[in-house]
Design a protein that fits this description.
This protein is mainly alpha-helical and about 525 residues long. The protein is built from 20 helices and three strands. Keywords: Membrane, Transmembrane, Transmembrane helix.
Length: about 525
């Protein structure tokens, strides 16, 4: 082994790192120590060569400074927050809309389901567009069009028109959840990605609770239409942040490129997608679509997403879409509620938010520890399937949380049981999603957005269906049986993760990823 061997990623997904024996854990080199024609190697803080090796161009996102990378990531975060934030924003106004449209609260609540469902095809459509025209224009148009249809929700005069605008809201607003993993792949090195994935996942998984938290407090003083007007303001802010702080991270390191001009016209053409349309050598929309479909046929993507991500996230979405109908009715109702005021309901949303934040803190350190400990025991080799060990603790916590939630409702115990059960369930969702996303990115580093779209697709397909049967299930069998069955389904779904760990390495050899598109 020479003293400058770099980290390599094999075709089967195994990442091998070689440390410079003379440097050991020396301090990292200057940001200017880029690869050169003489074979210089860029190394990380521990003296290990980074993956991937950046080009020598300052326009290469891998060469951007820490501040620039995180500003671009910051421009993405509001869109990720609003993806589900906007959909659950209306969950606290069902009781106000029902009299206006002469409908039951249960029927009005189903306006969320088309919006959740449309996130699936919306995310899938965003992938070919961001591979062809770039990440920035897709992010910009996503936020701008979401703003337009949110205005439509605000002024809608019928349930049908409101629901149609909500469905478009889900369709256009899904893009940040898909683009996020591509941005992380474009800007950050292998050893940095798990923490950034955790942050990105936390932003769209905490959104479903921040939305109704704010909305519930607002309806104390305003009607539901002004309440939705505030949501328009949030989308306006997100659009402005993309315009001001966003940048294009799609970069071809296989060929030299001229340095980008810094003019306003170039910036505008980049934002609108005009510059992306001019760029030659990128794949066509049909090529990306074919790769996207072929990716799902690979069992190491299909098993941990369709069979695990869907069940572990659908019950989380089910709780947030029905929680008001559990806690707002008075104790004398049938079934008995908790008689919460709107203020108390808003405060209850702190439980899932705190659970998600604890999950973010857990994942921030645990996923890096998994990689570091594994590579230390295996002579510097990292196997993607090791990432999946991060699933098991969150799953156990989530199972216990659902059981606690159901038993509290069944026996009408103190509402603290609901809070803890809900928070535990949200910790589980983030912890498991981070591990799955990191695994998928290790397996398909050149197809980050394609793989991310399928993760998002299965997540929302499960969530879409829950609103149609959750309350009927509870009414028929009781909360204890309902949430107990949900926890059993999660436990059974974990078998797909075990299967992926056992056979995943062989699957990756038999069904390698398609050729890189850009």
């Amino acid at each position: 082994m020479t003293d400058k061997e770099i980290t390599q990623t094999a075709s089967d997904g195994v990442v091998t790192t070689f440390q410079d024996p003379e440097k050991g854990a020396a301090s990292p080199p200057s940001i200017n120590s880029l690869p050169s024609s003489s074979g210089a190697v860029r190394v990380g803080p521990d003296g290990t060569a980074v993956v991937p090796q950046p080009s020598s161009s300052p326009d290469d996102p891998l060469n951007w400074g820490w501040k620039k990378k995180h500003i671009v990531l910051l421009a993405l975060i509001p869109g990720c927050l609003l993806s589900d934030w906007a959909l659950t924003w209306g969950s606290s106004v069902f009781e106000l809309q029902a009299p206006e449209w002469h409908m039951s609260v249960k029927d009005v609540s189903q306006s969320m389901s088309p919006a959740i469902f449309m996130q699936g095809p919306g995310g899938l459509l965003a992938v070919p567009l961001c591979q062809r025209y770039g990440r920035l224009p897709v992010l910009f148009w996503s936020q701008f069009l979401s703003l337009i249809v949110t205005i439509g929700c605000t002024v809608a005069r019928s349930y049908d028109s409101f629901t149609a605008c909500r469905a478009l809201q889900g369709f256009f607003g899904a893009a940040p959840q898909v683009i996020g993993m591509s941005l992380i792949h474009d800007m950050f090195f292998f050893h940095e990605r798990a923490r950034k994935i955790n942050l990105w996942a936390a932003s769209f998984l905490i959104g479903p609770y921040l939305g109704p938290f704010f909305s519930t407090l607002i309806v104390l003083k305003l009607a539901w239409r002004p309440d939705f007007a505030v949501l328009c303001g949030f989308y306006g802010l997100s659009t402005i942040m993309v315009m001001v702080f966003g940048d294009e991270t799609l970069y071809d390191r296989t060929k030299p490129s001229e340095q980008k001009p810094k003019t306003m016209m170039y910036r505008l053409s980049l934002l609108l997608g005009i510059e992306g349309a001019r760029v030659s050598g990128r794949p066509g929309l049909w090529t990306v679509f074919k790769h996207q479909c072929s990716l799902l046929a690979r069992p190491h993507l299909f098993f941990p997403t369709a069979f695990f991500v869907m069940p572990i996230t659908m019950w989380t979405i089910g709780i947030v879409s029905t929680i008001t109908q559990f806690v707002l009715p008075p104790p004398q109702a049938t079934p008995p509620g908790y008689g919460f005021s709107y203020v108390a309901l808003a405060m209850l949303y702190w439980a899932p938010m705190l659970g998600t934040l604890v999950g973010e803190l857990w994942g921030h350190y645990f996923n890096d520890w998994l990689v570091a400990s594994y590579t230390k025991r295996h002579s510097g080799k990292h196997l993607p399937e090791n990432r999946l060990n991060g699933v098991y603790v969150p799953v156990i916590v989530g199972i216990c949380g659902l059981v606690l939630f159901g038993e509290t409702l069944q026996h009408h115990l103190h509402w603290v049981g609901l809070a803890f059960g809900w928070g535990m369930n949200c910790f589980s969702t983030l912890g498991a999603m981070t591990a799955i996303s990191a695994y998928v990115l290790d397996c398909f580093p050149d197809h980050a957005s394609l793989a991310s779209a399928w993760i998002n697709f299965w997540r929302v397909i499960g969530g879409f269906s829950v609103a149609y049967f959750q309350l009927d299930w509870v009414a028929r069998n009781g909360p204890s049986v309902t949430f107990g069955c949900q926890s059993a389904i999660i436990a059974g779904a974990t078998a797909s993760v075990v299967a992926t760990q056992v056979w995943g390495k062989g699957w990756r050899k038999i069904w390698p990823a398609p050729a890189a598109e850009n």
